[in-house]
Amino acid sequence: MLQKMPMLLIPGPITLPERVLKAMAKPIISHRGEEFHRLYEEMEDGLKYAFQTENDVYIINGSGTAGIDMVFQNFVYEGEKILIPDFGDFTERAVENAVKVGAKPVIVKAEWGDVPKLREIIDVIEKEDIKSIFIVHNETSTGVTFRMMEEIRNAIGNKDILVFVDTVSDLGVEPFYTDKWHVDVCVTASQKGLGGPPGLSFVSVSKRALEKGLNNPRRRSFYLDIEKIHKFHLRKETPFTPAITLLYGMAEALNILKEEGYNERIRRHKENAEMIYEFLESEGFEIFPKEEKYRSISIIVFKNNNFDPSKVIKKLYEEYGILIARGMGKLKDETTRIGNVGYEGREEIEYFLKSFKTLLNTLR
Ligand SMILES: Cc1ncc(COP(=O)(O)O)c(C=O)c1O
Predict the structure, then answer these.
(1) Domain 7-12+261-363 in CATH: superfamily?
(2) 47 lines ligand 1 (CB under 6 A)
(3) Which pLDDT tens digit goes with each residue over 26-65?
(4) Per-state percent for the chain, helix, strand, coil, to nearest 5
(5) Which residue's alpha carbon is nearest to atom 3 within ligand 1?
(6) Is 140 touching ligand 1 by the criterion CB < 6 Å?
(7) Can you give the residue ranges of every domain in the chain?
(8) Which of 267, 262, 265 lies closest to 50 in space, CA to CA?
(9) Does the Cβ of 64 fall within 6 Å of ligand 1?
(10) Number of the ligand 1 atom closest to the C-alpha atom of 167
(11) Whole-structure pTM value
């Protein structure tokens, strides 16, 4: 059962079920004892299922951004080239991160609302001496999903190029296969598709990425250092004091994912998204992503047209207890975003759409 109100239909965090909230009320335990090791192992098992991987998955204290920092601080060497397809706010952050660690980003750009051209990305893979590629799988700012992982994998072939992917806003919502697609490092966070509380990030790391991280001559972060993280991971612990309360909530969220089933969860989100897109189009709204093929399941972005987002968002929240989000970054005034990353199913989405329609009619 979902906690009653508010219904958060923003791009995370989400409305949590009572089961997850209750799990977070458990007594605190020592993070160096047997009970903690069991909690860690339980989470590890659930995370591997969520990532569809046999790779190690590390638990990081800190939101998705901490997990992404962990990638750049450890697996990207100073001076080397990294390919970054750039099509929104989060891909721009990746470029900034690459520059911070002294790497040289090679950028393939697309206008916001589009994905970069596959041919241009493949050209860079074939011609430039890149050591890695960083892909934002779902651009939360534009509602565009990068559905070209297999093509990228095929283009890389046996080349010594590591693949890093940010799935913060779509793991558990959009199909994503870490092992099948040979993704070396995949990062996600607790508060969206995985159904947990905000504050944690998770990073799956392949053996060859781990080796590269351990051999990095200039790892600068103390807190996010892969050598420490891996050493403690082998003991089923974290190097520093973990957010035990959040881990309890997250472990329960991962149990719920297993009970629902990976494919069923994806199906539910897909059905929700279809209902929302259909409604928006029938109401005359223009969907922001240019091509239907790349429209996100998890973050639905539409143009405001003749609609005052601040007024509608405020009223929807005050009168119906439903929260949707403004546009992000340079799209703040131009677009509105609906998050489809939580526990809602057909019934909740129908309630949302009915409320939204009533509100739109009163404002027109
Ligand atoms: C694609 C993407 N990457 C990274 C982040 C950063 O995550 P956090 O806000 O949990 O630090 C977000 C947050 O929304 C995101 O959507």
Answers:
(1) Aspartate Aminotransferase, domain 1 (3.90.1150.10)
(2) no
(3) 999 999 999 999 999 999 999 999 999 999 999 999 999 9
(4) 45, 20, 40
(5) 168
(6) yes
(7) 7-12+261-363, 18-259
(8) 262
(9) yes
(10) 1
(11) 0.97
